[in-house]
């Protein structure tokens, strides 16, 4: 077993009942940021994403297009792959639940749970939401038997003989898990939701369906089809297998387990924080370390939906404004874990203020002054030449640790705000110190100290922002004379470990500064019709 630290994280496996939307892009961007940050720490990272392709919802979507389910899925999956590329997502594994390798894992897992005595046959009666692929308690339904999540969809009554998983058997073990590992479910509001649900008493849940063709057959009863969630959750384990290895639970466990982080939407929290750990307990497999449920996105403070005509197309957004703009806004302006809103005017104002005016302007004006006053070379200054009382150094000395803590807590907005505090301080420092006046007065030493402090602050800000806006950070590092490209995967053996580059004062006069160029073009506000 490799002793080098690994970090495994997953996005949800996205339903292919339609093309990807901003709600799919949002957690995938967040996962990519976490993965990039973990790589900067020198860890071996496995970022898993993929698609959930079985179930009644997919079967009906295919039928509506007069396609076979596999044909339908094969037509939708490329749209996810192309969007991830557009958004600069560096995923390591893309798992499709229709992959034959996945079926082998599902069968082996089912056999383990079967032999543990946790699967039995029983009668399933209740209201079923096809969009959720879940039975609903009648008390939770809206007027007219509408689903509380898919409010424009009526649930369907089901009365059928199914196979069940003994979820109730694991109630006390789950409660002990939540008690002993308080950070297992995050944020705190999600944890409280799960505790309330579990404390009401857990009911066994159905893991098979009849009259459904699209899915894997139940190994002990080929007339029934495995329930989509029992199949889909196991996609995370299938993805742990190396491509050239036989897909077995043993091989999946050999290198990457346990999974460190599941990033999911709050609407599928119950499946990941209750059903999934109970299933793993039954199969005697390691539990994940953390399940984080993020909030929903709205547009102009309204829930997005086709019926309202206010959906947000991530492809159009990236093609109009660029990947860095989209990545930055959604992680800086929305507290991860809470619901958040997209407003185009605010989107443009934030980007212009933070990336063009503050960060871009600071780099550009400083490089131009270095070119004018120092012949385009990094001043011959060391960090020891600048006292700890220097306002930029005072912020920079603790910034790396502060931002590291924020990234680890998935507090991306806090990370951005902390980094921006240094950037804004840099612009104020230039205005206060007036290097142009120092030059006229012949105060060369002080001038060089000012310019070095600002250059180093820009570098530090770019490095710490690199998980979020790798394109822009790469441009800044190139202009500062570094060879590091944050668009390339940083490996643990790279010359860019976090411990070094998050330290204040690593710029040296060995760096050959590049030609100043804009790192972010200002965006014009949309014109009123």
From TrEMBL:
<feature type="binding site">
    <location>
        <position position="147"/>
    </location>
    <ligand>
        <name>Zn(2+)</name>
    </ligand>
</feature>
<comment type="similarity">
    <text>Belongs to the class-I aminoacyl-tRNA synthetase family.</text>
</comment>
<keyword id="KW-0547">Nucleotide-binding</keyword>
<dbReference type="InterPro" id="IPR009080">
    <property type="entry name" value="tRNAsynth_Ia_anticodon-bd"/>
</dbReference>
<protein>
    <recommendedName>
        <fullName>Methionine--tRNA ligase</fullName>
        <ecNumber>6.1.1.10</ecNumber>
    </recommendedName>
</protein>
<dbReference type="InterPro" id="IPR014758">
    <property type="entry name" value="Met-tRNA_synth"/>
</dbReference>
<dbReference type="InterPro" id="IPR033911">
    <property type="entry name" value="MetRS_core"/>
</dbReference>
<feature type="domain" description="Methionyl/Leucyl tRNA synthetase">
    <location>
        <begin position="146"/>
        <end position="367"/>
    </location>
</feature>
<feature type="short sequence motif" description="'KMSKS' region">
    <location>
        <begin position="303"/>
        <end position="307"/>
    </location>
</feature>
<feature type="binding site">
    <location>
        <position position="129"/>
    </location>
    <ligand>
        <name>Zn(2+)</name>
    </ligand>
</feature>
<keyword id="KW-0963">Cytoplasm</keyword>
<dbReference type="GO" id="GO:0004825">
    <property type="term" value="F:methionine-tRNA ligase activity"/>
</dbReference>
<dbReference type="InterPro" id="IPR015413">
    <property type="entry name" value="Methionyl/Leucyl_tRNA_Synth"/>
</dbReference>
<dbReference type="InterPro" id="IPR041872">
    <property type="entry name" value="Anticodon_Met"/>
</dbReference>
<comment type="function">
    <text>Is required not only for elongation of protein synthesis but also for the initiation of all mRNA translation through initiator tRNA(fMet) aminoacylation.</text>
</comment>
<comment type="subunit">
    <text>Monomer.</text>
</comment>
<dbReference type="Pfam" id="PF19303">
    <property type="entry name" value="Anticodon_3"/>
</dbReference>
<dbReference type="InterPro" id="IPR023457">
    <property type="entry name" value="Met-tRNA_synth_2"/>
</dbReference>
<keyword id="KW-0030">Aminoacyl-tRNA synthetase</keyword>
<keyword id="KW-0436">Ligase</keyword>
<keyword id="KW-0067">ATP-binding</keyword>
<dbReference type="Pfam" id="PF09334">
    <property type="entry name" value="tRNA-synt_1g"/>
</dbReference>
<feature type="binding site">
    <location>
        <position position="150"/>
    </location>
    <ligand>
        <name>Zn(2+)</name>
    </ligand>
</feature>
<feature type="binding site">
    <location>
        <position position="132"/>
    </location>
    <ligand>
        <name>Zn(2+)</name>
    </ligand>
</feature>
<feature type="domain" description="Methionyl-tRNA synthetase anticodon-binding">
    <location>
        <begin position="401"/>
        <end position="483"/>
    </location>
</feature>
<keyword id="KW-0648">Protein biosynthesis</keyword>
<dbReference type="InterPro" id="IPR014729">
    <property type="entry name" value="Rossmann-like_a/b/a_fold"/>
</dbReference>
